[in-house]
Structures are given as structure tokens and as C-alpha cells.
Design a protein that fits this description.
It comes from Pseudothauera rhizosphaerae. This is Type II secretion system protein. A three-stranded antiparallel sheet has the order 1-2-3, with helices on one face. The protein starts with 11 loop residues before the first helix and ends in a 7-residue tail after the last strand. The chain has two helices and three strands. By secondary structure, the chain is mostly helical. It has one domain. It is 36% helix and 7% strand.
Amino acid sequence: MVVPMARGERGSVYLGLIFLVAILGTGLAAVGPLVQVSMQREREADLLSIGDEFRRAILTYYESSPGGNKRYPRTLEDLLEDRRHPVMRRHLRRIHRDPWSGEPRWGLVEAEDGGFKGVYSLAELTPLKHAGFPSRYEAFAQASRYSDWRFEYAPPSLR
């Protein structure tokens, strides 16, 4: 048996749901920017970690050059498979993806010998982080874009 509703009760549940959705939407809109900033900080940390791994790989490639002729790698793949020695060496396990693009593409900082001495992200976004960098990356504090964060290796004799 269907109980008829009183005249003032019609639509009150619907109206309550509309208010609930409005309140939830406002709350989510307020949380959205916080989540975005948190994700950007996480990507910055990933970029610093990955960039430093590239810098260390370039360092070991350069310093393990056979003979007295130190050379920088010509391609990123040279860091994966260094065939300049009787036994192949791996300075890097894989070409990491840029945290901003999700692609394994990086800008290369050219070296005087025709190879590359560093990598950088191709992202043109403005960094959130402007302090607290390790001393070798202190120039990052003045960077206006992530593409200005250059992860380079320069031997002590060239600094």
C-alpha cells in the first residue's frame, strides 16, 4: 500500500541531495589545488632523483674511459651499454621517463668533445622548489623553468 506524502514533503529528499552534492563539490574544489601542488612536489623530487642518477651515470662513463682519453657518452644508449671495454658495462639500467612528460626523452647538454655532459627535462613549467638543493645543484634555486635544471658532470679539472 502506497502512503501519500503530505504536500510539503514532496521533493525534500531531492533538495537535500542537491545541497549535499553542492557541499561535496565545494569541498573537492578546495582540495583540488592542494592535490595538484602535492603531485608537483612529488614530480620535482622524482626529477631530482632521476637527474642525479643520470649525472652519476655520465660520471662513471667519463671516468671509466679506457686509456688516458676521457670521453663523454654520445647517446643515452651509451650509458646502457658501454662497449668500449672487453666486457660491456652498464652505467644506467634504463632510460628513465621524464616525470613531466612521461616519455623517455631528455634534453642533452652538449660537451666540447661532441658527446653530452648532462641532461635536463624538456618541461617549461615553473618550479615550486627554490631552496634546499644539494651544493652541486645550488643554481637550481634561480631557475624559472624545470628545463633550467641541468644535471651535468664536469670533471674537477674542468670546473
